[in-house]
Design brief:
single chain, alpha+beta, four-stranded antiparallel β-sheet, 3 helices, 4 strands, 78% helix, signal
Length: 165
């Protein structure tokens, strides 16, 4: 008895699997299922009752449906790839802008450092000229030395900043 129940269950599962695997297509307002060369309507094999031209038309409708589904999948895939490419392009542009910005920032820092060095040299020469001519009071001399020390500190900071870039 157990073997018979198991066999019946297996047959029912195989039949269910067969119907689940069947392709559905709508033709003249009726929904047919096609499995290999058999055409089912409401779970009943109607292949022998259909004319050859009706069978061909139903199978052609299924082929068209399958082609449309494939075309739709291809279209969605192409759209997805297009979006991915656009996203990658935007990311690359963003990276490029970031790199350009970093380069400009570094160039500006280098320019500022050069200006500061030139200013230090110029002010040092002016200080030495005034000192050599004796035109600096002790207070003025102290101001000049503080000014030159501050410029040196600024140069050191600018050099550190450049090394970090």
């Amino acid at each position: 008895m157990k073997k018979k129940n198991g066999f019946i269950t297996l047959v029912l599962l195989l039949m269910t699997f067969t119907f689940v695997q069947a392709q559905k297509v709508e033709y003249q307002g009726k929904e047919y299922k096609i499995k290999k060369d058999l055409i089912f309507l409401d779970g009943v094999d109607v292949t022998p009752t259909l004319t050859v031209s009706e069978q061909t038309a139903i199978k052609d409708a299924l082929k068209n449906q399958i082609e449309l589904e494939k075309a739709e999948k291809e279209k969605k895939k192409a759209e997805k790839e297009k979006k991915k490419a656009e996203k990658e392009k935007k990311k690359a542009e963003k990276e490029k802008k970031k790199a350009e910005k970093a380069i400009k920032k570094k160039e500006k820092a280098e320019s500022n450092l050069e200006k500061s060095k030139k200013k230090l040299v110029k002010d040092t020469e002016k200080y030495e000229t005034l000192r050599d001519k004796g035109k600096l009071s002790p207070v003025d001399e102290e101001k000049w030395l503080k000014k030159l020390d501050k410029q040196k500190e600024n140069i050191e900071k600018a050099e550190k900043k450049l090394r970090k870039m």
